[in-house]
Amino acid sequence: MSLPHLSTGAAKPMIGVLINRRSGRNRAGLKELRNLVRQSPEVVARETSSRAEAAAVMREFSTLGVGILAVSGGDGTLQDVFGLVFNDHLFAKPPLLGILPGGTTNMIGHDVGVARKPARELAALLQRVRTGRVEQGLVRRRLIAVHHHSRPGVQYGLFGGGAGIHQGTMISRRSVDRLGMRDAAGPLAGLMGLIGPMLIGHNPIRAVAAEIRHDGLVEERRDYLAIIVSTMERLLLGLFPFWGSGPGPIRLTTVATKPRRFSRVILPVLRGRIPADATPMNGYRSVNARQVEIDMTGGFVLDGEIFEVEAGKPLRLDAGPEVTFVRGGE
């Protein structure tokens, strides 16, 4: 791909840094990030606390001609940025996106390979740019484009799900709010709060009835314990519960209610290994698709954003645009 023009002059900053002041890590680590920005003439940074402020900042960055938009925030901040880039078209050409993981869990940053604190990641990104190694730091991902009657336009993300995924997210949020858990600790609490009891024969998950279509194929309406979609290459905690085939970029895995041989299936599957018992007959299905429709009632989460879905008004997930990230580290 052709890289955007990256000016090295102070009048034309090559990196625009959008800082969400409300993101989890940013609330404690802004001083170090601000100090680095002051020492870096090729960087212009703006702090925001709302989507409207972020839109104004991105218009400014577009006018300045920044080639890399570094986002200091979490997955929700990135989701807003995706919408501003691909729905509102605030840039003539989508910029490269840098992730400065300033959120609570930072799943997208983990997938891209970014784990340092925001200031350290910005320093590494600056070093990559200054030494002309931007091309070596590129990571491409296909976004999931979500259409739903309750939201104007299209929402974009990389990971989502319903039933147990939604319920686990709620447990994770409570753990974060009550105990201050960060990074993988919150999702781990959500995962163990659901899977742990199932391993000893107790099911805490409220099943969700859904009819699911993928690339025109209709799965019969049934109760599900988990509906999982992603275009990521790796999830937190080393998890990767996808084993389907096919050319579509959206990975879809479902677990039906009362799955057979759960304890023999779940641990290998979570690690990306496929046991022979992970079959549709036993209640497990994994496919790759270009389009997925989910007709259900209940909550569906997309990178932390919650959709309330009603029966008869399906959620449609399409293969969305490709986004190019640039990371500071190797």
Describe what this molecule looks like in 3D.
The chain is an alpha+beta fold. It has two domains: 15-142, Rossmann fold, CATH 3.40.50.10330; 159-302, Tumour Suppressor Smad4, CATH 2.60.200. Helix content is 30%, strand content 32%. The protein contains eight helices and 15 strands. It has helices at residues 26-38, 51-64, 75-86, 107-112, 118-130, 164-179, 185-199, 262-270, and strands spanning 15-20, 43-48, 68-73, 96-101, 138-147, 155-157, 159-163, 208-214, 217-230, 250-256, 284-289, 291-296, 298-302, 305-309, 315-326. The strands form two sheets. Strands 5, 6, 7, 8, 9, 10, 11, 12, 13, 14 and 15 form an eleven-stranded antiparallel beta sheet that branches. Strand 3 (68-73), helix 3 and strand 4 form a beta-alpha-beta unit. The longest helix has 16 residues, at 164-179.
Tags for this model:
alpha+beta, Rossmann fold, Tumour Suppressor Smad4, eleven-stranded antiparallel beta sheet, four-stranded parallel beta sheet, elongated
Major β-sheet, in short?
11 strands, antiparallel
Helix run count: 8
Apparent shape: elongated
Uncertain segments: 1-12, 177-181
Identify the CATH class of the largest domain: Mainly Beta
- The name of the CATH architecture of the largest domain is Sandwich
Task: Give the CATH topology of the largest domain.
Answer: Tumour Suppressor Smad4
Mean pLDDT: 85
Return the domain count. 2
- For the secondary structure, the number of strands is 15
Give the helix proportion (percent range). 25-40%
User: How big a fraction of the residues is strand?
Assistant: 25-35%
Order of helices and strands: EHEHEHEHHEEEHHEEEHEEEEE
Q: Structural class of the secondary structure composition?
A: alpha+beta
| Distance N to C terminus | 19 Å
> What is the radius of gyration?
20 Å
